[in-house]
Amino acid sequence: MKRFSREEKSWIMYDWASSAYSIIISTAVFPLFYKAAANNSGVDAADSTAYLGYTIAIATSILALLAPILGTIADYQGFKKKFFTFFVALGISMTAALAFVPSDQWLWLLIFYTIAVIGSSGSNVFYDAFLVDVATEDRMSRVSARGFSLGYIGSTIPFIISIAIIMLAQSKIIPISTTSASQISFVITALWWGLFSIPIFKNVNQIYYIPRDPKPVASSFKRLAETFKEIKKYRALFLFLLAYFFYIDGVGTIITMSTAYGTDLGIDSTTLLIVLFVTQVVAAPFAILYGKLAEKFSEKRMLYVGIFVYIIVCIYAFFLETATDFWILAMLVASSQGGIQALSRSYFAKLVPKERSNEFFGFYNIFGKFASIMGPLLVAATAQITGHTSSGVFSLVILFIIGLVILTKVPEPKSS
Protein backbone atom coordinates (compact mmCIF):
# COMPACT_ATOMS: atom_id res chain seq x y z
CA MET A 1 0.00 0.00 0.00
CA LYS A 2 1.34 3.39 -1.04
CA ARG A 3 2.47 5.66 1.79
CA PHE A 4 0.49 8.75 2.62
CA SER A 5 1.42 11.77 0.51
CA ARG A 6 2.32 15.18 1.95
CA GLU A 7 -1.16 16.45 1.09
CA GLU A 8 -2.84 13.43 2.68
CA LYS A 9 -0.73 13.76 5.85
CA SER A 10 -1.50 17.48 6.10
CA TRP A 11 -5.22 16.83 5.66
CA ILE A 12 -5.13 14.04 8.26
CA MET A 13 -3.27 16.33 10.67
CA TYR A 14 -6.26 18.66 10.87
CA ASP A 15 -8.19 15.87 12.58
CA TRP A 16 -5.32 15.77 15.10
CA ALA A 17 -5.72 19.53 15.57
CA SER A 18 -9.49 19.93 15.75
CA SER A 19 -10.25 16.79 17.78
CA ALA A 20 -8.95 18.58 20.88
CA TYR A 21 -12.04 20.78 20.56
CA SER A 22 -14.26 17.74 20.09
CA ILE A 23 -13.28 16.06 23.36
CA ILE A 24 -12.49 19.03 25.63
CA ILE A 25 -15.19 21.46 24.54
CA SER A 26 -17.93 19.31 22.99
CA THR A 27 -17.67 16.22 25.15
CA ALA A 28 -15.69 16.52 28.37
CA VAL A 29 -14.52 19.62 30.21
CA PHE A 30 -16.91 22.31 28.95
CA PRO A 31 -20.15 20.32 29.57
CA LEU A 32 -19.01 19.60 33.13
CA PHE A 33 -17.91 23.22 33.58
CA TYR A 34 -21.28 24.43 32.29
CA LYS A 35 -23.25 21.92 34.41
CA ALA A 36 -21.40 23.10 37.52
CA ALA A 37 -22.06 26.75 36.66
CA ALA A 38 -25.76 26.09 36.06
CA ASN A 39 -26.04 24.04 39.24
CA ASN A 40 -24.39 26.80 41.30
CA SER A 41 -26.94 29.22 39.85
CA GLY A 42 -29.80 27.03 41.05
CA VAL A 43 -30.74 25.46 37.70
CA ASP A 44 -32.24 21.96 37.98
CA ALA A 45 -30.03 19.14 36.60
CA ALA A 46 -32.57 17.94 34.02
CA ASP A 47 -33.24 21.53 32.94
CA SER A 48 -29.55 22.36 32.52
CA THR A 49 -29.09 19.24 30.37
CA ALA A 50 -32.12 20.32 28.33
CA TYR A 51 -30.72 23.84 27.88
CA LEU A 52 -27.47 22.36 26.58
CA GLY A 53 -29.48 20.28 24.12
CA TYR A 54 -31.44 23.32 22.97
CA THR A 55 -28.20 25.29 22.55
CA ILE A 56 -26.68 22.60 20.35
CA ALA A 57 -29.88 22.57 18.32
CA ILE A 58 -29.78 26.35 17.79
CA ALA A 59 -26.10 26.39 16.78
CA THR A 60 -26.43 23.51 14.36
CA SER A 61 -29.61 24.89 12.79
CA ILE A 62 -27.84 28.19 12.01
CA LEU A 63 -24.98 26.40 10.29
CA ALA A 64 -27.28 23.91 8.57
CA LEU A 65 -29.10 26.77 6.86
CA LEU A 66 -25.85 28.40 5.72
CA ALA A 67 -23.81 25.32 4.73
CA PRO A 68 -25.26 24.52 1.27
CA ILE A 69 -25.10 28.19 0.22
CA LEU A 70 -21.54 28.69 1.47
CA GLY A 71 -20.52 25.32 0.04
CA THR A 72 -21.88 26.20 -3.40
CA ILE A 73 -19.98 29.51 -3.41
CA ALA A 74 -16.82 27.73 -2.20
CA ASP A 75 -16.83 25.46 -5.27
CA TYR A 76 -15.57 28.42 -7.28
CA GLN A 77 -11.81 28.55 -7.75
CA GLY A 78 -9.96 29.92 -4.71
CA PHE A 79 -12.94 30.14 -2.35
CA LYS A 80 -12.72 26.83 -0.46
CA LYS A 81 -9.67 27.69 1.63
CA LYS A 82 -10.96 31.20 2.38
CA PHE A 83 -14.16 29.85 3.89
CA PHE A 84 -12.24 27.12 5.70
CA THR A 85 -9.88 29.71 7.18
CA PHE A 86 -12.72 31.94 8.37
CA PHE A 87 -14.52 29.17 10.26
CA VAL A 88 -11.31 27.79 11.77
CA ALA A 89 -10.44 31.27 13.05
CA LEU A 90 -13.97 31.75 14.42
CA GLY A 91 -13.90 28.41 16.24
CA ILE A 92 -10.45 28.93 17.74
CA SER A 93 -11.15 32.48 18.92
CA MET A 94 -14.48 31.58 20.52
CA THR A 95 -12.97 28.54 22.22
CA ALA A 96 -10.31 30.76 23.77
CA ALA A 97 -12.98 33.32 24.69
CA LEU A 98 -14.80 30.72 26.83
CA ALA A 99 -11.93 31.03 29.30
CA PHE A 100 -12.82 34.63 30.00
CA VAL A 101 -16.55 34.20 30.71
CA PRO A 102 -17.24 34.33 34.49
CA SER A 103 -18.11 30.84 35.72
CA ASP A 104 -21.40 32.01 37.24
CA GLN A 105 -22.64 33.34 33.89
CA TRP A 106 -24.00 30.04 32.55
CA LEU A 107 -26.15 31.75 29.90
CA TRP A 108 -23.16 33.62 28.46
CA LEU A 109 -21.23 30.36 28.45
CA LEU A 110 -23.93 28.88 26.23
CA ILE A 111 -23.86 31.92 23.93
CA PHE A 112 -20.09 31.74 23.42
CA TYR A 113 -20.36 27.97 23.03
CA THR A 114 -22.96 28.46 20.28
CA ILE A 115 -20.53 30.58 18.25
CA ALA A 116 -17.68 28.11 18.87
CA VAL A 117 -19.88 25.26 17.59
CA ILE A 118 -20.62 27.23 14.42
CA GLY A 119 -16.89 27.79 13.87
CA SER A 120 -15.93 24.18 14.49
CA SER A 121 -18.75 22.63 12.49
CA GLY A 122 -18.40 25.18 9.69
CA SER A 123 -14.70 24.39 9.25
CA ASN A 124 -15.53 20.70 8.97
CA VAL A 125 -17.80 21.32 5.95
CA PHE A 126 -14.80 22.50 3.92
CA TYR A 127 -12.32 20.16 5.59
CA ASP A 128 -14.42 17.14 4.60
CA ALA A 129 -14.76 18.52 1.06
CA PHE A 130 -10.96 18.74 0.78
CA LEU A 131 -10.88 14.92 0.88
CA VAL A 132 -11.56 14.80 -2.87
CA ASP A 133 -8.57 17.13 -3.44
CA VAL A 134 -6.05 15.06 -1.48
CA ALA A 135 -7.00 11.41 -2.09
CA THR A 136 -8.00 9.20 -5.00
CA GLU A 137 -11.21 7.17 -4.65
CA ASP A 138 -9.39 3.91 -3.87
CA ARG A 139 -7.62 5.62 -0.92
CA MET A 140 -10.48 7.70 0.48
CA SER A 141 -11.69 5.19 3.09
CA ARG A 142 -8.13 4.61 4.38
CA VAL A 143 -7.27 8.34 4.48
CA SER A 144 -10.59 9.28 6.11
CA ALA A 145 -10.28 6.53 8.72
CA ARG A 146 -6.67 7.47 9.46
CA GLY A 147 -7.81 11.05 10.04
CA PHE A 148 -10.32 9.99 12.67
CA SER A 149 -7.79 7.63 14.24
CA LEU A 150 -5.10 10.29 14.48
CA GLY A 151 -7.71 12.67 15.83
CA TYR A 152 -8.50 10.31 18.68
CA ILE A 153 -4.82 9.83 19.50
CA GLY A 154 -3.93 13.50 19.18
CA SER A 155 -6.83 14.73 21.24
CA THR A 156 -5.66 12.68 24.22
CA ILE A 157 -2.53 14.83 24.62
CA PRO A 158 -4.21 18.19 25.38
CA PHE A 159 -6.91 16.21 27.19
CA ILE A 160 -4.37 14.61 29.54
CA ILE A 161 -2.68 17.97 30.14
CA SER A 162 -6.03 19.61 30.86
CA ILE A 163 -7.24 16.84 33.16
CA ALA A 164 -3.91 16.83 35.01
CA ILE A 165 -4.23 20.57 35.68
CA ILE A 166 -7.85 20.15 36.83
CA MET A 167 -7.04 17.23 39.15
CA LEU A 168 -4.00 19.00 40.60
CA ALA A 169 -6.21 22.01 41.27
CA GLN A 170 -8.84 19.81 42.91
CA SER A 171 -6.15 18.27 45.13
CA LYS A 172 -4.82 21.74 46.05
CA ILE A 173 -1.39 20.72 44.73
CA ILE A 174 -1.31 23.79 42.51
CA PRO A 175 -2.65 27.10 43.88
CA ILE A 176 -5.54 27.65 41.48
CA SER A 177 -9.26 26.87 41.62
CA THR A 178 -10.92 24.08 39.65
CA THR A 179 -12.74 26.79 37.74
CA SER A 180 -9.47 28.42 36.66
CA ALA A 181 -8.04 25.01 35.74
CA SER A 182 -11.02 24.34 33.46
CA GLN A 183 -10.62 27.76 31.87
CA ILE A 184 -6.94 27.03 31.22
CA SER A 185 -8.03 23.89 29.37
CA PHE A 186 -10.07 26.04 26.99
CA VAL A 187 -6.97 28.09 26.15
CA ILE A 188 -4.91 24.92 25.67
CA THR A 189 -7.55 23.63 23.24
CA ALA A 190 -7.46 26.82 21.18
CA LEU A 191 -3.65 26.82 21.01
CA TRP A 192 -3.50 23.13 20.05
CA TRP A 193 -6.15 23.59 17.37
CA GLY A 194 -4.36 26.59 15.86
CA LEU A 195 -0.82 25.16 15.92
CA PHE A 196 -1.61 21.87 14.23
CA SER A 197 -3.85 23.47 11.61
CA ILE A 198 -0.76 25.02 9.99
CA PRO A 199 0.05 21.99 7.73
CA ILE A 200 -3.34 21.98 6.02
CA PHE A 201 -3.06 25.71 5.32
CA LYS A 202 0.43 25.25 3.86
CA ASN A 203 0.06 22.05 1.84
CA VAL A 204 -3.58 21.46 0.88
CA ASN A 205 -5.19 23.36 -1.97
CA GLN A 206 -8.37 23.21 -3.99
CA ILE A 207 -7.72 21.05 -7.07
CA TYR A 208 -11.27 20.46 -8.25
CA TYR A 209 -13.31 23.59 -8.77
CA ILE A 210 -15.68 25.53 -10.99
CA PRO A 211 -14.14 28.53 -12.84
CA ARG A 212 -14.87 31.84 -11.15
CA ASP A 213 -18.06 33.66 -12.04
CA PRO A 214 -18.47 37.46 -12.08
CA LYS A 215 -21.48 37.07 -9.77
CA PRO A 216 -20.58 34.04 -7.59
CA VAL A 217 -23.35 34.52 -5.01
CA ALA A 218 -26.20 34.88 -7.52
CA SER A 219 -24.80 32.06 -9.64
CA SER A 220 -24.50 29.83 -6.58
CA PHE A 221 -28.19 30.20 -5.81
CA LYS A 222 -28.97 29.28 -9.41
CA ARG A 223 -26.77 26.19 -9.16
CA LEU A 224 -28.50 25.15 -5.95
CA ALA A 225 -31.88 25.48 -7.67
CA GLU A 226 -30.64 23.41 -10.61
CA THR A 227 -29.36 20.73 -8.24
CA PHE A 228 -32.80 20.36 -6.68
CA LYS A 229 -34.37 20.21 -10.16
CA GLU A 230 -31.96 17.44 -11.12
CA ILE A 231 -32.37 15.52 -7.88
CA LYS A 232 -33.24 12.31 -9.77
CA LYS A 233 -29.83 12.50 -11.42
CA TYR A 234 -28.26 12.27 -7.95
CA ARG A 235 -30.68 9.70 -6.54
CA ALA A 236 -28.01 7.53 -4.90
CA LEU A 237 -26.37 10.55 -3.33
CA PHE A 238 -29.54 11.96 -1.81
CA LEU A 239 -30.76 8.52 -0.74
CA PHE A 240 -27.52 8.10 1.19
CA LEU A 241 -27.98 11.54 2.73
CA LEU A 242 -31.44 10.53 3.93
CA ALA A 243 -30.02 7.41 5.59
CA TYR A 244 -27.16 9.47 7.03
CA PHE A 245 -29.66 12.00 8.40
CA PHE A 246 -31.19 9.37 10.65
CA TYR A 247 -28.26 7.29 11.85
CA ILE A 248 -25.79 10.15 12.36
CA ASP A 249 -28.43 11.86 14.50
CA GLY A 250 -28.03 9.19 17.14
CA VAL A 251 -24.23 9.16 16.85
CA GLY A 252 -23.92 12.92 17.29
CA THR A 253 -26.40 13.06 20.15
CA ILE A 254 -24.61 10.36 22.11
CA ILE A 255 -21.24 12.11 21.59
CA THR A 256 -22.34 15.62 22.57
CA MET A 257 -24.55 14.71 25.53
CA SER A 258 -22.66 11.75 27.03
CA THR A 259 -21.06 13.66 29.91
CA ALA A 260 -24.29 15.45 30.79
CA TYR A 261 -26.02 12.05 30.77
CA GLY A 262 -23.34 10.53 33.00
CA THR A 263 -23.59 13.45 35.42
CA ASP A 264 -27.35 12.96 35.71
CA LEU A 265 -26.69 9.30 36.57
CA GLY A 266 -24.56 10.40 39.51
CA ILE A 267 -21.18 9.48 38.06
CA ASP A 268 -18.50 11.81 39.42
CA SER A 269 -16.58 14.13 37.10
CA THR A 270 -13.22 12.40 37.62
CA THR A 271 -14.63 9.03 36.55
CA LEU A 272 -16.33 10.63 33.55
CA LEU A 273 -13.10 12.25 32.37
CA ILE A 274 -11.13 9.01 32.75
CA VAL A 275 -13.80 7.10 30.81
CA LEU A 276 -13.67 9.66 28.02
CA PHE A 277 -9.89 9.46 27.85
CA VAL A 278 -9.92 5.66 27.56
CA THR A 279 -12.68 5.92 24.96
CA GLN A 280 -10.43 8.11 22.79
CA VAL A 281 -7.53 5.66 23.08
CA VAL A 282 -9.68 2.62 22.24
CA ALA A 283 -11.45 4.39 19.37
CA ALA A 284 -8.20 5.08 17.47
CA PRO A 285 -7.30 1.50 16.42
CA PHE A 286 -10.96 0.70 15.75
CA ALA A 287 -11.18 3.61 13.30
CA ILE A 288 -8.17 2.23 11.40
CA LEU A 289 -9.70 -1.25 11.53
CA TYR A 290 -12.94 0.02 10.00
CA GLY A 291 -10.95 1.63 7.18
CA LYS A 292 -9.06 -1.58 6.42
CA LEU A 293 -12.15 -3.76 6.62
CA ALA A 294 -13.99 -1.33 4.32
CA GLU A 295 -11.38 -1.98 1.63
CA LYS A 296 -12.08 -5.69 1.94
CA PHE A 297 -15.84 -5.83 2.57
CA SER A 298 -16.98 -2.37 1.31
CA GLU A 299 -17.86 0.78 3.23
CA LYS A 300 -21.56 0.05 3.21
CA ARG A 301 -21.22 -3.28 4.97
CA MET A 302 -19.03 -1.76 7.64
CA LEU A 303 -21.58 1.03 8.08
CA TYR A 304 -24.16 -1.70 8.76
CA VAL A 305 -21.88 -3.04 11.50
CA GLY A 306 -21.46 0.41 13.06
CA ILE A 307 -25.19 1.12 13.08
CA PHE A 308 -25.93 -2.25 14.66
CA VAL A 309 -23.43 -1.54 17.46
CA TYR A 310 -25.13 1.81 18.14
CA ILE A 311 -28.53 0.13 18.37
CA ILE A 312 -27.08 -2.07 21.11
CA VAL A 313 -25.64 1.08 22.78
CA CYS A 314 -29.05 2.77 22.93
CA ILE A 315 -30.78 -0.30 24.35
CA TYR A 316 -28.05 -0.84 26.94
CA ALA A 317 -28.12 2.85 27.93
CA PHE A 318 -31.75 2.51 29.00
CA PHE A 319 -30.73 0.07 31.74
CA LEU A 320 -27.64 1.99 32.85
CA GLU A 321 -27.26 2.19 36.64
CA THR A 322 -23.61 2.05 37.71
CA ALA A 323 -20.21 3.40 36.72
CA THR A 324 -19.34 -0.08 35.44
CA ASP A 325 -22.33 0.05 33.13
CA PHE A 326 -21.12 3.43 31.86
CA TRP A 327 -17.67 1.94 31.18
CA ILE A 328 -19.19 -0.88 29.12
CA LEU A 329 -21.32 1.60 27.21
CA ALA A 330 -18.31 3.82 26.50
CA MET A 331 -16.27 0.91 25.11
CA LEU A 332 -19.13 -0.08 22.81
CA VAL A 333 -19.27 3.48 21.52
CA ALA A 334 -15.46 3.53 21.12
CA SER A 335 -15.59 0.44 18.91
CA SER A 336 -17.63 2.16 16.21
CA GLN A 337 -17.69 5.93 16.78
CA GLY A 338 -14.75 6.81 14.53
CA GLY A 339 -15.44 4.08 12.00
CA ILE A 340 -19.02 5.07 11.26
CA GLN A 341 -18.08 8.74 10.84
CA ALA A 342 -14.97 8.10 8.74
CA LEU A 343 -16.68 5.69 6.36
CA SER A 344 -19.73 7.93 6.00
CA ARG A 345 -17.39 10.70 4.88
CA SER A 346 -15.43 8.59 2.40
CA TYR A 347 -18.54 6.82 1.05
CA PHE A 348 -20.16 10.18 0.36
CA ALA A 349 -16.95 11.58 -1.19
CA LYS A 350 -17.07 8.78 -3.75
CA LEU A 351 -20.64 9.70 -4.69
CA VAL A 352 -20.17 13.45 -5.24
CA PRO A 353 -19.01 15.19 -8.45
CA LYS A 354 -15.51 16.31 -7.46
CA GLU A 355 -15.69 19.82 -8.88
CA ARG A 356 -18.88 20.39 -6.84
CA SER A 357 -17.64 18.78 -3.64
CA ASN A 358 -18.25 21.85 -1.46
CA GLU A 359 -21.84 22.18 -2.61
CA PHE A 360 -22.60 18.55 -1.91
CA PHE A 361 -20.66 18.45 1.34
CA GLY A 362 -22.81 21.46 2.25
CA PHE A 363 -25.80 19.15 1.83
CA TYR A 364 -23.92 16.47 3.77
CA ASN A 365 -23.51 18.99 6.55
CA ILE A 366 -27.09 20.22 6.47
CA PHE A 367 -28.42 16.67 6.72
CA GLY A 368 -26.01 15.92 9.55
CA LYS A 369 -26.73 19.17 11.37
CA PHE A 370 -30.51 19.02 11.09
CA ALA A 371 -30.21 15.50 12.42
CA SER A 372 -28.19 16.95 15.30
CA ILE A 373 -31.12 19.22 16.05
CA MET A 374 -33.63 16.40 16.26
CA GLY A 375 -31.58 14.13 18.52
CA PRO A 376 -30.72 16.62 21.28
CA LEU A 377 -34.27 18.00 21.20
CA LEU A 378 -35.65 14.47 21.53
CA VAL A 379 -33.39 13.68 24.47
CA ALA A 380 -33.99 17.11 26.06
CA ALA A 381 -37.77 16.94 25.78
CA THR A 382 -37.92 13.35 27.01
CA ALA A 383 -35.63 14.15 29.94
CA GLN A 384 -37.93 16.96 31.05
CA ILE A 385 -41.14 14.96 30.52
CA THR A 386 -40.01 11.74 32.20
CA GLY A 387 -37.30 13.11 34.50
CA HIS A 388 -34.97 10.39 33.13
CA THR A 389 -32.37 11.07 30.41
CA SER A 390 -32.10 7.32 29.72
CA SER A 391 -35.56 7.30 28.15
CA GLY A 392 -34.43 9.85 25.58
CA VAL A 393 -31.30 7.85 24.72
CA PHE A 394 -33.38 4.70 24.27
CA SER A 395 -35.72 6.51 21.85
CA LEU A 396 -32.77 7.05 19.49
CA VAL A 397 -33.01 3.37 18.51
CA ILE A 398 -35.73 4.12 15.99
CA LEU A 399 -33.47 6.61 14.20
CA PHE A 400 -30.73 4.01 13.75
CA ILE A 401 -33.22 1.46 12.45
CA ILE A 402 -34.69 3.91 9.91
CA GLY A 403 -31.19 4.89 8.77
CA LEU A 404 -30.20 1.23 8.38
CA VAL A 405 -33.25 0.40 6.27
CA ILE A 406 -32.70 3.37 3.93
CA LEU A 407 -28.98 2.61 3.63
CA THR A 408 -29.80 -0.84 2.21
CA LYS A 409 -31.41 0.94 -0.76
CA VAL A 410 -28.28 2.95 -1.65
CA PRO A 411 -26.25 1.48 -4.55
CA GLU A 412 -22.50 1.10 -4.28
CA PRO A 413 -20.65 4.11 -5.76
CA LYS A 414 -19.26 3.62 -9.24
CA SER A 415 -15.52 3.99 -9.61
CA SER A 416 -14.54 6.94 -11.76
UniProtKB/TrEMBL annotation:
The answer to whether the entry has keyword NADP is no
The lineage's top-level taxon is Bacteria
Q: What InterPro entries would the database entry show? A: Atg22-like, ATG22/LtaA_families, MFS_dom, MFS_trans_sf
Q: Main localisation, per the record?
A: membrane
- Does Transmembrane appear among the keywords? yes
Q: Which residue ranges run through the membrane? A: 12-34, 54-76, 83-101, 107-127, 148-169, 181-201, 237-260, 272-290, 302-320, 326-348, 360-385, 391-410
- Where does the Major facilitator superfamily (MFS) profile domain start and stop, copy by copy? 236-416
Q: Name one Pfam family in it.
A: ATG22
Q: Where in the cell is it found?
A: Cell membrane
Bilayer topology annotation? Multi-pass membrane protein
* Gene3D superfamilies found in the cross-reference section: MFS general substrate transporter like domains (1.20.1250.20)
Which keywords fit this entry according to its UniProt record? Membrane, Transmembrane, Transmembrane helix, Transport
> What PANTHER family does this protein map onto?
AUTOPHAGY-RELATED PROTEIN 22
Q: What is this protein called?
A: MFS transporter
- The scientific name of the source species is Robertmurraya beringensis
